[in-house]
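Methods — Computational structure assignment.
A single polypeptide chain was analysed. Its primary sequence is given first, followed by the predicted tertiary structure written as structure tokens.
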Amino acid sequence: MSLCPPSFACLRLSKRAVPGPVLWVPVFLLWPLWFAALGLFCLTLLVITAATGSNAFRATFAATRALHQVVCELRGTHCELSSAGTWKHFQLSLL
């Protein structure tokens, strides 16, 4: 289990017969936005938990941790999309 979100995204748009250029996107520049969104998610769950009178604060932190783990496990994901009619090919890899 990794605790670090993906650092780079490798994008390739091409025709099937001809490999196209590769665009490396530095996803780590979006990490501050991700952590801010994760904090907002946790804060929202805490407010909802307090407003309902529940004592399930541990579940709030568990849900926040689970959401972060899902995003961190995207590292190593490889996705390819092809269109038969236009002969276009899209490839995405998260590193």
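Note: The mean pLDDT is 90.
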